[in-house]
Amino acid sequence: MRHTITILVENEFGVLTRIAGLFSARGYNIETLNVAPTLDETVSRLTLVTHGDDKIIEQIKKQLNKLIPVIKVEDISHMVHLERGMLMLKVIDAGDLLKAAKAAGAKIIDHESGNYFIAEFTGAPEEVDAFLASVDAEYIIEASRTGPVGMRRGSKGFVV
Amino acid sequence: MQMTGAEIFVECLKREGVEVIFGYPGGAVLPIYDAIFQQSHFKHILVRHEQAALHAANGYARVSGKCGVSLVTSGPGATNAITGLADSNADSIPNVCFTGQVPLPMIGTDAFQEADIVGITRSATKHNFLVKNVEDLALIIRQAFHIATTGRPGSVVVDIPKDLGFAKCDFVWPEEVNMRSYQPKTSGHAGQIKKAVRAMLKAKRPMLYSGGGIMNARGSAALLKTLAHQLNAPVTNTLMGLGGIPFDDKHFVGMLGMHGTYEANMAVSHCDLLVSIGARFDDRVTGRLNAFAPDAKVIHIDVDPTSISKNVDADLPIVGDVGIVLQQILDELSHQGGVPDLEALKLWWQQIDEWRAKDSLGFEQSEEGPIKPQTVIRKVHEITKGNAIVTTDVGQHQMWAAQHYGFKEPHKFLTSGGLGTMGYGLPAAVGAAMAAPNEPIVVFTGDASIQMCIQELATAYQYRQKIVVVLLNNAYMGMVRQWQEMFHESRFSHSYFDSLPDFAKLAEAYGGVGITADTLDELDKALEVAFGSQESFVFIDVAVAKEENVFPMVPAGAALNEMVLA
Ligand SMILES: Cc1ncc(C[n+]2csc(CCOP(=O)(O)OP(=O)(O)O)c2C)c(N)n1
Ligand SMILES: [Mg+2]
Fold it and tell me: Is B398 tagged catalytic?
């Protein structure tokens, strides 16, 4: 099963290596990982997407918590939650590709007419997938995609 | 007050109550060694190899109950220490290792004796630090000791660049360590404790299974014994847990697992309630997982949540310090005022006594020899009245020591359980001797293992430690030979030594007393010399039956109740 785990860590050097190292040492997989400092700059927030059965996910959560700089871990998969990821897509400017991208909800952030354009698309992972699939692969020059960031719905916050 | 980093190091160790450290100097730690030279708060024991510094600190920690401390230089000094770091971490022994590092501006330049120690030791430690500002040093040292000694203890590395030893700043001692990201749980959940006690009183075939957690929670062995007696329940110990209950207590059924007793393994296989106390269901304990304790409800008490339901699903997990949780259980037991099911327990003990009658540790010793390794262990027990601190290396001799010495108390059996590190025994004894200078200390070792850290005889001699090394010399890597005999059709690939040194002479060369014992008579005489009034270490090279195997045995992948008796 796919699980989305949000993590708050001390914003100190080497934390990311500790998390990545934990996953490789114990043979867990990381599908995507997103990190950035929070409003409180001593804290970073991660969103990690992984796969595993319940037993493995339980271990992953415990092992993450066991890392000294990890402050809080929450598996938001089973909660009502939102996920958003971003895609930047560089496309050959041909036919009505640009029009189609706009119609699909992408923002055009760079454009050299008749040469190429860069579309920015934000959405739930499935939406990003769908958008990407909608563009004829032959015309795609390059794609750069983030893993999703996630948050529970409701007024309660996931903070230190 | 302004202090250099090196002075801060000394001051912090003093304030942490450190009395002895084990180390080996080198370029990157010279400023610190200079400060050590000028202080008198703690002793520095000079080992002969950095791995040994870590094992010695480990042995010291286990006997003293304090944190082990070591100091090594950058690059090769630190890489030599890695086995010891991994060893202490696997066995949950508090051990802080300070490593020198090249000066800050040179980090990342592939400088002379530079190694990325924080990177290399990340998965061999509980945590590690690279100190980047001299102002951070005191806090980091404080946190290192805090992390190493609390929760599930382990090893911690503090990597200190050489220039920080000279750099100056105001010394500020952090009175408290409060880490928001690290708050180990100590007491067990009250509701879970209630449920556990109810289950214990209801059980018809209860079984207590305790491990190294009892050693780490000082004083908890007495609570374990009280619980066993109040419940009239049998107790088995893991290798790390031996001494958790006196070997001659009638509730003790011996060690369990691969080389455990028949009664312990059968009892685990047939119990209806298994209470795990500070143990982690290691594969050497459980045998084939899907056949492990098939009828049992499992209560798992552990300070480390990751140990719970990792290998065996716990029906009732209790996260907390083993000592505190045991006390909570005893309090709840007297509060509920219940009595266990005496009728059922009578039948349970009848069954256990039947299994016991098999005498699975039995062996035959003929008068004329060869000397059986088991005999040696039993003789050492006799002459030390079971009061020695025993360390071992890894192999058959380790299992025989575990099976046959018989421990009366906790903290007397020092062995590398988790990592299984050959070379652990002698340096661990050196550390133990610093913690308990007036107690008899015995190293049971093998002809292969001893050669992995034999240089520590020089350390033992330098500090006039009266360690007794008992070498069960079978001229084989016995444990490897046993597996080759049993699982590889006796193809003894590289497990035989035809070039063993004369160990007695070697011991003499190191300054100690070396004795060779080929007969039972010679063995008795050698033991008398060793435990008489010696001024140095004594090394007894005992020629034992070469092809003796360790039994009983649960072959890898088999279930506990499928054990081979002989
Ligand atoms: C550092 C290390 N290398 C290899 C092993 C694998 N190993 C386990 S037991 C053993 C043989 C030990 O022989 P010896 O010390 O003579 O003890 P015996 O089994 O004969 O009593 C070996 C090689 C190990 N445990 N540790
Ligand atoms: Mg041997």
Answer: no
User: Are B393 and B271 in the same domain?
Assistant: no
Over chain B, what is the mean pLDDT?
Answer: 97
Q: What are the backbone dihedrals phi and psi of residue B185, each rounded to the nearest 5 degrees, phi first?
A: -80, 140
| Token output for A104 | 């699909």
Span B183-197, mean pLDDT?
97
Helices (H), B362-500: 373-383, 396-404, 425-435, 456-462, 478-487
B112 & B202 share domain: no
> The domain containing residue B478 runs over which residues?
373-543
Backbone phi, then psi, for B378, in 5-degree steps? Answer: -65, -35
Lining residues, ligand 1, CB within 6 Å: B 393-397, 420-422, 446-449, 472, 474, 476-480
Question: Taking a C-beta distance cutoff of 8 angstroms, is the pair B442, B384 a contact?
Answer: yes
Task: State whether A71 and A95 are in the same domain.
Answer: no
CATH number at residue A142: 3.30.70.1150
Q: What value of ipTM does the predicted structure carry? A: 0.92
pLDDT at B1 over 90: no
Cβ B480 vs Cβ B495: under 8 Å: yes
Give helix B342-356 / helix B262-270 axis angle, nearest 10°.
140
Establish if A44 belongs to a structural domain.
Answer: yes
What rounded mean pLDDT belongs to chain A? 96
Considering only the beta carbons, identify the residue of A14, A63, A160 that sits closest to B180: A160
Phi, psi of B20 (to 5 degrees): -150, 140
Judge if pTM exceeds 0.95. Answer: yes
The answer to whether position A22 is within a domain reads yes
Q: Say if the Cβ atoms of A55 and B309 lie within 8 Å.
A: yes
**Residue B367 covered by a domain:** no
- Give every CB contact of residue B511 below 8 A, 6+ residues apart in sequence: B457, B458, B461, B536
β-strand partners of B207: B274
Residue located nearest, by CA, to atom 3 of ligand 1: B422
Task: Kindly report the length of chain A.
Answer: 160
A24 and A55 within one domain? yes
Q: Which domain holds residue A20?
A: 2-75
Q: CB-hemisphere CA count at 13 Å for B70?
A: 41
